[in-house]
Amino acid sequence: MPSARFPAKRRLPRVRSSPAEGRWRHSREAGLEPDVLVIGGGNAALCAALMAREAGASVLLLEAAPRAWRGGNSAHTRNLRCMHDAPQDVLVDAYPEEEFWQDLLKVTGGITNEHLARLTIRASSTCRDWMRRHGVRFQPPLSGALHVARTNAFFMGGGKALVNAYYRSAERLGVAVRYEAPVDRLELKDGHFVAAHLRGGERIAARACVLAAGGFESNRDWLRAAWGQNGRGEWPADNFLIRGTAFNQGVLLRHLLDEQRADGIGDPTQAHMVAIDARAPLYDGGICTRIDCVSLGVVVNREAHRFYDEGEDFWPKRYAIWGRLVAQQPGQIAYSIIDSQAIGRFMPPVFPGVKADSLPELARRLGLDETTFMQTLSHYNAACRVGHFDHTTLDDCHTEGVSPAKTHWARPIEAAPFYGYALRPGVTFTYLGLKTDHTAAVRFNDRASENLFVAGEMMAGNVLGKGYTAGVGMSIGTAFGRIAGANAAAAAMKRGARHAGA
């Protein structure tokens, strides 16, 4: 029986050839091996590959996905949370280090490594010029995202454009790229990287390696083992949807933790988990499936009861708690309820909501018990103390005498037509990962490897013990991708010089 941390392995597609692979095979036939091997194909992996190449190292990047699906979850992103002490092009006002740190401290509940968190924060203030040099362009936020105009820099064209820009830059600089090249295991000696073994049995040696192959959010067996069975006899993970790539199976993460006994960090049930439209696809639904109207109305579970404060804080700071909240409800489903007053105040999702001219009709159309639903809405409406409604501030509209309270943006739901959205937990990425330090080195028995480094989702749990705030995943991936790439290049050069002198 697989454990929560280490479930049984899952088969992935076989390795297939590509033009990039053909070029690399030619160099192998000439007796060449890369200085730096990067395993992964998203933002963190690409940052590592680019930094290593800029430092003079030869680099091979292995992406498990086909070319059309390259980029992992990074293809679904849209912005980067950035520290800045004054207005900077697309960023308004200031977002100083201490405020960024306090935001992160609040959402993680203190489950974070302050040293690595502050390293990430400081790095976010200096990375954008480097990103521009590699073809990334930024734009002001769209009207539906003005509430993060001060804290987040948006990519022109979104994450897919960012990923494509990085791949173009990598190819221009001479980084070799292979697609459909999943790595099954690593060959290590006393914590030192020796070689990677691909699914088909091919062995690739290198002087240094960067691991940036993502978490295990796409591995249903692992999610099921981690979450287990709840008191209602349900397996919550069976109802999870995956917001991003189907290729993040956690194969290398499990191999490092289980077989190689690398130092791990994090809870396997903690993740960036968002409440998304229940009609979303199993994989790769992306940001357009997120339901952003939660703070403008109420959320009820399958039994038509409210279960959490919908107005606790600004949506960018709290949206990533709602997937976990829904996962804890009966059937892992909930319903976001709004009225016509909310329309135009949130980013519309890809699917229209269920529409009704009355609340009883909405209950029936959603399949909820009409009597209980009307009691819940009546109690909420009567409890609302409406002051000056302003969704851009922590306003004074709140409830009194109802539990759970709604602490901001509380207005009676009374203006027809009414809308309802069925919600499911949408997993973005998991937080169980490899323990690291400021060098991005993988650690074994609390000792840093000299030539094996980690970046992105595989180490994000060092900074994110739980919770999330918009754009910080890209901040972590960019910071540690660049650190890992630079240090891998230095390690490769050091090992090369040592061998040359032998």
From TrEMBL:
UniProt keyword terms in alphabetical order: FAD, Flavoprotein, Oxidoreductase
Region (Disordered): 1-27
GO molecular function: oxidoreductase activity
FAD-dependent oxidoreductase 2 FAD-binding domain residues: 35-463
Protein's UniProt keywords contain Flavoprotein: yes
Keyword Flavoprotein annotated: yes
Required co-factors: FAD
NCBIfam families referenced in this protein's UniProt entry, alphabetically: CobZ_N-term (TIGR02485), PRK08274.1 (NF006130)
Protein name as it appears in the record: FAD-dependent tricarballylate dehydrogenase TcuA
Gene name linked to the record: tcuA
